[in-house]
User: Fold Sodium:solute symporter from Streptomyces hokutonensis.
Amino acid sequence: MTVDYFVMAAYLLGIIGVGWWGKKRAASKSDFLVAGRRLGPLMYTGTMAAVVLGGASTIGGVRLGYTYGISGAAMVFAIGLGLLALSIFFSARIARLKVYTVAEMLSLRYGDTAAVISGVVMWIYTLMLVVTSTIAYASVFDVLFDVPRWVAVVIGGSIVVGYSALGGMWSITLTDMVQFVVKSLGVLVLLLPIAVVKAGGFGAMADELPHGYFSLTSIGGQTILTFVLIYTFGMLIGQDIWQRVFTARSDRVASWGGTVAGVYCLVYALAGAVIGMATRTLYPNLAAADDAFATIVRHALPTGVRGLVLAAALSAMMSTASGALIASATVANNDIWARLRKRTVSGSKDDEIGSNRLAIVVLGIAAMGIACALGDVIEALTVAYNLLVGGLLVPILGGLVWKRGNLPGAMASMIAGGTTVVVLMATDGLLANEPIYYGLLAGFVAYLAVSLLTKPTEPSVVQAWHRRLAGEPAPTAPELSVA
Assistant:
């Protein structure tokens, strides 16, 4: 493993170096949080694909393929469909708003009161995304290097927090491009064909695998529907995804670049499931399905290639972790902390960058602590998306497509949907299907009924909203204030 250790160490050092280089470009709040809104098609596509395909998509996708066969691609496939829908139908309008957070969008659409509750929900979601990616790369270290979980968490987490805090979105964008290339090479070009060949090809896999492993629905229709509700809809409204949309230099880049990234996700989904099936063929009696990815890498790949594929896995996990971390810090600092202190979100350049940098460090340490306490990457990710979709999907999409929606309706939807999800997760289990079904239903009914029974949104708020949707420049004075 000496050569593999060297390859991985060189990769990690390179990531730190790229992150340090990105620090020089973070000269303003816009640079630090949204890369100056200057990304072109190539960088936008690569970084968007990198942020949505993380530890859960890689480790979890292979795990589902190992357990259910080709239908295990459903989870990551749902992520790709969500990114396609976002890019085709909404990304151009989102990019024109010129905001930093989803809560700012809700503030523009409904009024400032909507921002705090939505900010809290979004903050919990993004923090849990950091945790899931941290758990994922810790599981790789566990199997391959036999180190304690907390050691793996601290090493990987320190690297992610370090380069994220150095240059913010510019560092993350540059490192994500490296990670996108390494991930594509390691997983799609190397691991996928090697795993299939080692398993004897698709014919041998069909003979050895349990019945139904080549069925597109063996994971269950209800499970597929739940994946669509959670992950497809979650892609439409997540702060980590929107923050990448804000980095596009134009509407066209956001739309077409995101569409290409969505197609890439669909290919990645199938690759993960097939790798899991090949692993099941070769190693049918693993103690834990989460070990499938690390096992196939460790035993099936030659020296050097193994190190590159492991670096690819770390790329997937770290790109999502860093994207979610800066999203969590942005929400915490700009939507929650600023409002609780009763001040505007703008200030001097150094104060803005410094406070967001501090938030990254604090939340990164918190995420490492939570990751040490939790162990199931799919469970943690499901909790995050249940809270996000159940609490915020209806008021966000409703605000974009229904003129009659108003602040009381949005608040009622957040409370009804979020509360229903939390209660049902506590009573029926974290992985149950019911929380998201009934959470969405409760949020939709509350939004529709309360909006129709109360006064419409103030005309001045509606006019300002339509000006921003039309792409008129955002004000240069303080962008938000707390009444």
Remarks:
- Residues 344-348, 476-483 have pLDDT under 50 and may be disordered.
- DSSP finds 19 helices and no strands in the chain.
- The first helix runs from residue 2 to 23.
- The two ends are 60 Å apart (CA to CA).
